[in-house]
């Protein structure tokens, strides 16, 4: 389970991207996502993919690692592809597709495939892949604590005076720190069950569901136990929400961060302009 | 108002219960002097961990008083007093808050509102003292249990507490880390600036302490020096403690008369066998 | 000469317990004092060399996340063999590969190199994941933390989980559950409790009982004594030793305290950085005591004390390592007396020249008169004292006898 879950762990390579301010990276990701949503053709997507590829290359993390992040989501991606192909715009009735500028159509009984449908489906999947890869890029180059500090820094101006941002940041930090531990615990319980003759991988769907359900109690109990110990430990180290604190790792916004953000700000702007023009 | 000759920690007629009608601690009155190292022992479920959690107001007694440095712990002064009492827990995983060792140490310091320069100074000093300089940039997942626990101790000591509580801190460690950690505790003792409480099942740790508080069924069963404690086999049995091999051998030998006939051989043998622990105790305790 | 004759007989009969054909007289005494000589289950009288090898690893490798960005090798070229009915201690520091090794043996992990043979199943790298329930019924694994082991809402259901999965009818599973609980020394009143409401020690035993209920031939336990207090540890190990001696089960126990298991284990495997750096019995372990620290394992007190004394009384060096404090004390006391007596009588002949010739007799007698040592937790003081006094007297008498007859 854990070996499939590589998202959420920083891979240190010491690249320039690693050194960027987390706020710049988060903003860039949001802008990139916006651009992805606004883009509506292969040309725009190609621009986005090119940029993404450039940033990926700059992280010095092998491309294979990024490809692996898509594996857990491959079925979802297939589903999106098929859905778009058969039910998305451009699919459906043969008349509609022939009316469009389809290069070819192919009909087998009630099912009709068109070049436009295929193109739309591929576009949807590519968008998804880019989104996954870019999210992975963010987590591969930023430690969870920097990420949560970044979010805290971005939220602070919004929740002026309150402890909302701090709460959220602490929650993020703890979640990112403990979700892998909980997953590992669940995996150990699955192994304990396999050792006693209930091998998850050898079961039919119904038994699998029952087995996963039986994990609920011990994993929850485990989570509570951890949470309790953690609260005790936080308290013992003098932590109180809202108490004054200084910061060890101050976020430092540099010129590179401004340029990086601006570069990504161009994307949705460009996409929007192209939409308006066409 | 802090008195000059106040005890580091003092419990007076303390009662505690988690659930009504099921007292965990009953009528506990104990006193620890500044600079003492006290091992808190007893069978699992005897209330040891509860006792030390009262010391930094993580728990509150149902009746009786807990004072630290002569000051009674109240809801009000608890956060302030906690800064003077550090704790190291059993499972290092569940006390690691930072993403890296360095950030974890800093986490406590941020709460003390130290400036950056001071934080850096302390991180450097305590990383050096616990020999974890090389680990500062590492993620807890990359550390062994022993290394994690050293880091937890560093994070605790960096806050410069006067009392340090080890709550079964060695019980999940492998033998080597256990010994390393014990050495760290001995070091702290030598420094003389800490009052140490260690909740433990480990005989070597008990033998290294100045005094042993033994609990049974929520009552204080004994408050003795390690020598006196290990001499009382009934007491050991009550606390679920086996005599360590070295001491057992020593006893059997003297029962067989071998120790007497061969001068000090048996004794020195057993002492050295105890890997410092036993020997040192005997020298220190006069 | 009586002593030597007696020793010889003991040595011959000790063959049935050994793993390898070597002088096992040392552990034989430990066994005698551990009460092993008191039973002789049928089918257990085959000689050591003929005992079936139930586990065999040949150059086994295991790499976590092979090919991935976080790949890390956990085992390198591990070779080991375990014979039926032995109690094997597996020691090593954190991250030495002990736990990975156990998971390899019941197919939770498949080797990435070499081969793993357990009973009549062979696991090879890259093989299509075989159906393993037939194997797992015969080799049980108890994980390090009992709370990760217990997931049903009553102890009974938890105990029945394994037997039911392995295809036993409900009544049979129920019977096995009760039996397993009893053989771990727990009362039936626990059957209807929720597992997570038990105390740490009880939970640990229920977790082991849940493995035992399926009736495995081989039981693997991952640090079963961690976080228990020393008296509870001793009790648990006594229970395990009984499962091995009386019921003929093969037991593999991972521990980081060699000390606690030294008395009970037949053989040791020390893991270090994914390699099996040591395989052998306690005597061989004693010979390589100085290497232990380098392997990340603390030298057990028995070895340290014994090394201390053999340095002082060189005649002890010829003897096999006594496993218990009582045995060690007796031998030392004997050596001390012997040295005194020979010095007094001016006799050139050393009283204990042969390997363990003299003390064996004594220990055989002293040991067999006592109940099993590991479970002898509540040894009452006065009685122990009187036994000891009697022993002391025997030594005195015997010392004189040796001198008189020589």
Automatic annotation (TrEMBL), chain A:
The chain crosses the membrane at residues 73-91, 103-122, 128-147, 259-277. Keywords: Membrane, Transmembrane, Transmembrane helix. This is Energy-coupling factor transporter transmembrane protein EcfT. Coiled coil: none annotated. Its main location: membrane. Pfam families: CbiQ. It is found in: Membrane. It is a multi-pass membrane protein.
Automatic annotation (TrEMBL), chain B:
Residues 260-270 have a biased composition (Low complexity). One of its GO terms (molecular function) is ATP binding. The keyword Signal does not apply. Residues 260-286 are annotated as: Disordered. Keywords: ATP-binding, Cell membrane, Membrane, Nucleotide-binding, Translocase, Transport. SUPFAM superfamilies: P-loop containing nucleoside triphosphate hydrolases (SSF52540). Residues 9-242 form the ABC transporter domain. SMART domains: AAA. Belongs to the ABC transporter superfamily. This is ATP-binding cassette domain-containing protein. It comes from Saccharibacillus alkalitolerans. The lineage of its organism: Bacteria, Bacillati, Bacillota, Bacilli, Bacillales.
């Amino acid at each position: 389970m854990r070996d499939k879950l590589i998202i959420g762990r920083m891979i240190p390579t010491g690249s320039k991207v690693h050194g960027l301010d987390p706020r710049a990276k988060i903003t860039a990701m949001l802008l990139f996502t916006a651009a992805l949503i606004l883009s509506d053709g292969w040309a725009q997507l190609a621009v986005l993919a090119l940029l993404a590829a450039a940033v990926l290359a700059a992280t010095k993390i092998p491309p294979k690692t990024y490809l692996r992040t898509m594996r857990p989501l491959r079925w979802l991606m297939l589903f999106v592809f098929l859905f778009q192909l058969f039910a998305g715009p451009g699919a459906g009735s043969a008349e509609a597709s022939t009316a469009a500028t389809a290069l070819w159509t192919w009909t087998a009984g009630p099912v009709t495939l068109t070049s436009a449908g295929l193109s739309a489906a591929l576009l949807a999947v590519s968008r998804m892949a880019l989104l996954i890869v870019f999210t992975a890029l963010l987590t591969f180059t930023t430690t969870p604590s920097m990420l949560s500090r970044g979010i805290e820094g971005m939220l602070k101006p919004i929740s002026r005076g309150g402890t909302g941002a701090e709460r959220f940041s602490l929650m993020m930090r703890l979640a990112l720190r403990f979700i892998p531990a909980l997953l590992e615990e669940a995996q150990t319980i699955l192994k304990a069950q396999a050792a006693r003759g209930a091998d998850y991988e050898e079961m039919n769907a119904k038994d699998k569901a029952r087995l996963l359900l039986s994990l609920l109690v011990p994993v929850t109990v485990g989570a509570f136990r951890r949470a309790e110990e953690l609260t005790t430990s936080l308290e013992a180290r003098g932590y109180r929400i809202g108490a004054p604190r200084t910061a060890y790792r101050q976020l430092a916004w540099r010129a590179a961060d401004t340029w990086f953000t601006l570069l990504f700000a161009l994307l949705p702007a460009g996409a929007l302009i192209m939409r308006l023009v066409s | 108002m802090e008195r000059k000759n106040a005890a580091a920690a003092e419990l007076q007629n303390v009662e505690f219960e988690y659930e009504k009608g099921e007292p965990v601690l009953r009528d506990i009155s104990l006193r620890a002097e500044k600079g003492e190292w006290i091992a808190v022992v007893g069978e699992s479920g005897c209330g040891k961990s509860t006792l030390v959690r009262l010391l930094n107001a993580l728990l509150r007694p149902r009746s009786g008083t807990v004072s630290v440095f002569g000051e009674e712990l109240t809801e009000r002064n608890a956060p302030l007093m906690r800064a003077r009492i550090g704790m190291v827990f059993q499972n290092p995983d569940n006390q690691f808050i930072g993403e890296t060792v360095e950030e974890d140490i800093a986490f406590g310091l941020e709460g003390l509102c130290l400036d950056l320069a001071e934080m850096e100074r302390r991180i450097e000093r305590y990383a050096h003292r616990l020999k974890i300089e090389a680990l500062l940039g590492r993620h807890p997942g990359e550390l062994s249990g022993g290394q994690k626990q050293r880091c937890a101790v560093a994070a605790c000591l960096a806050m410069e507490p006067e009392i340090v509580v080890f709550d079964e801190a060695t019980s999940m460690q492998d033998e080597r880390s256990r010994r390393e950690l014990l050495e760290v505790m001995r070091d702290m003792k030598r420094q003389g600036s800490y009052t140490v409480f260690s909740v433990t099942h480990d005989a070597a740790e008990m033998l290294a302490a100045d005094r042993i508080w033994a609990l049974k069924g929520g009552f204080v069963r004994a408050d003795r020096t390690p020598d006196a404690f290990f001499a009382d086999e009934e007491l050991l049995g009550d606390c679920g403690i086996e005599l360590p091999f070295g001491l057992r051998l020593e006893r059997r030998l003297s029962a067989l008369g071998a120790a007497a006939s061969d001068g000090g051989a048996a004794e020195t043998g057993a002492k050295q066998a105890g890997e410092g622990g036993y020997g040192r105790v005997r020298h220190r305790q006069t | 000469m009586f002593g030597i004759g007696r020793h010889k007989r003991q040595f011959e009969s000790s063959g049935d317990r050994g793993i390898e054909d070597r002088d096992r007289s040392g552990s034989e005494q430990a066994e005698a004092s551990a009460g092993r000589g008191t039973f002789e289950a049928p089918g257990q009288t085959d000689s050591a060399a003929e005992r079936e090898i139930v586990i065999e690893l040949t150059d086994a490798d295991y790499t976590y996340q092979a090919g991935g960005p976080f790949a890390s090798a956990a085992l390198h070229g591990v070779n080991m063999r375990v014979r039926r009915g032995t109690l094997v201690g597996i020691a090593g520091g954190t991250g030495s590969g002990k736990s990975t090794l156990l998971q390899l043996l019941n197919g939770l992990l498949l080797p990435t190199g070499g081969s793993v043979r357990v009973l009549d199943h062979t696991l090879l790298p890259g093989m299509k994941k075989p159906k393993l329930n037939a194997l797992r019924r015969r080799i049980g694994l108890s994980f390090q933390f009992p709370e990760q082991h217990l997931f049903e809402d009553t102890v009974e259901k938890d105990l029945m989980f394994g037997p039911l999965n392995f295809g036993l009818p409900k009544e049979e599973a129920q019977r096995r559950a009760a039996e397993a609980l009893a053989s771990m020394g727990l009362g039936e009143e626990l059957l209807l409790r929720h597992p997570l409401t038990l105390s740490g020690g009880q939970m640990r035993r229920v977790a082991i009982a849940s493995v035992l209920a399926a009736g495995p031939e081989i039981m693997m336990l991952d640090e079963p004594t961690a976080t228990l207090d020393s008296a509870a540890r001793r009790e648990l190990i006594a229970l395990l030793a009984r499962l091995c001696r009386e019921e003929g089960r093969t037991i593999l126990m991972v521990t980081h305290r060699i000390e606690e298991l030294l008395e009970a284990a037949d053989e040791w495997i020390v893991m270090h950085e994914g390699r099996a750096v040591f395989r052998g019995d306690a005597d061989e372990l004693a010979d390589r005591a100085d290497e232990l620290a380098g392997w990340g394992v603390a030298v057990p007190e028995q070895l340290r004390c014994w090394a201390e004394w053999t340095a002082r009384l060189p005649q002890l060096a010829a003897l096999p390592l006594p496993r218990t404090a009582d045995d060690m004390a007796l031998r030392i006391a004997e050596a001390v007396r012997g040295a005194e007596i020979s010095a007094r009588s001016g006799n050139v002949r050393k009283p204990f020249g042969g390997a363990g010739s003299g003390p064996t007799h004594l220990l055989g007698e002293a040991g067999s008169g006592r109940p099993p040592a590991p479970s002898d937790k509540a040894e009452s003081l006065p009685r122990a004292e009187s036994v000891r006094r009697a022993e002391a007297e025997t030594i005195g008498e015997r010392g004189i006898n040796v001198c008189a007859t020589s």
